[in-house]
Design a protein that fits this description.
310 residues, TIM Barrel, eight-stranded parallel β-sheet, 8 strands, N-acetylneuraminate lyase, schiff base, Schiff_base-form_aldolases_CS, N-acetylneuraminate lyase activity
Length: 310
């Protein structure tokens, strides 16, 4: 297995859809070019942001292939393969390895809940075994999976059972648990932060990388947080984190992912809306969102100062 340590800002990418709600693979190269221009250091494909759970397995394979091809090894591509069917998850993992993805990741099944650490380890061992040559990161997102199992205990037991377990995508707000996981066995595991509005706190706790939705639209803002933190200018880092919180609160007045896709459309990217049950913003909501973003100086958060397209 190739080892890896993720770093910097990893965009949890969106899956472009056309007006009929079908996957629009032709839009992915433009999306990749845009994200590279914004300074992201990796892509996380078919996760929560990418509506992986709303796509068919064939669609997920097609999307993963398109992102790997478009990225052309410039930055790592992490393919999220979690599924309520563990058998399907294994097949998605096998496909990710076959197409040249750099990393796989997976949520646990969420319809029938995973009740304890032993069952989570066995389940993830089977999924990770589908791509034994790739690093595997368990995707811990208890708000959506309903599984709030202690991650430190999972890493310790999983490290003994899962040969390619590299770490976690940690999407929770418990900085104390995050720090504990980072420090286990002298930093054996790579634990990546997944809560955009708390990036600064995670950096202070030891984070080396973050995976997030809003890195799609405001990577320059988060780069400023990291730069200020690395320079020891905590006041400036706190200022930019505050601007991130303000932005996320503005977007959060609307259905979040449809609003995010609307912003990408304003940037000239053909990503469409979301699959049901999320849907897309109405014209009135999009107009209101644009006004809310302009009110908080959203364009100023972009290093390139890109205008919002009409």
């Amino acid at each position: 297995m190739t080892t890896t340590t993720l770093s910097g800002l990893i965009a949890a990418t969106y899956t472009p859809l056309n007006d009929g709600g079908d996957v629009n693979l032709s839009a992915i190269p433009q999306m990749v070019d845009y994200l590279l221009s914004q300074g992201v250091s990796g892509l996380y494909v078919c996760g929560s942001t990418g509506e992986g759970m709303s796509l068919t397995s064939d669609e997920r394979r097609a999307v993963a292939s398109a992102y790997v091809e478009a990225t052309a090894k410039h930055i790592p591509v992490i393919v999220q393969v979690g599924h309520n069917s563990v058998h399907e998850a294994c097949q998605l993992a096998e496909h990710a390895q076959a197409i040249g993805a750099d990393v796989i990741s997976a949520t646990c099944p969420s319809y029938f809940k995973v009740a304890d650490v032993a069952m989570l380890v066995e389940t993830m061992a089977e999924v990770a075994g589908g791509a034994p040559d790739l690093p595997f990161y368990y995707y811990h997102i208890p708000a959506l999976t309903g599984s709030a199992i202690d991650m430190g205990e999972f890493l310790l037991k999983g490290g003994e059972r899962i040969p390619n377990l590299a770490g976690l995508k940690y999407t929770d707000t418990k900085l104390f648990e995050f720090q504990h996981c980072l420090e286990l066995q002298d930093g054996r595991f790579d634990v990546v932060w997944g809560c955009d509005e708390m990036l600064l706190g995670a950096l202070a706790t030891g984070a080396r990388a973050g995976i997030g939705s809003t890195y799609n639209i405001a990577a320059p803002l988060y780069r400023r947080i990291i730069e200020a933190f690395n320079q020891g200018d905590i006041e400036r880092a706190r200022h930019w984190q505050s601007r991130s919180i303000e932005m996320i609160r503005a977007i959060g007045r609307y259905p979040f992912h449809p609003a995010m896709k609307a912003i990408l459309e304003m940037r000239g990217l053909s990503v469409g809306g979301c699959r049901l049950p999320q849907g897309r913003l109405s014209m009135a909501e999009t107009k209101s969102l644009r006004a809310d973003l302009e009110a908080i100086g959203f364009n100023e958060l972009q290093a390139a100062n890109l205008p919002l397209a009409e």
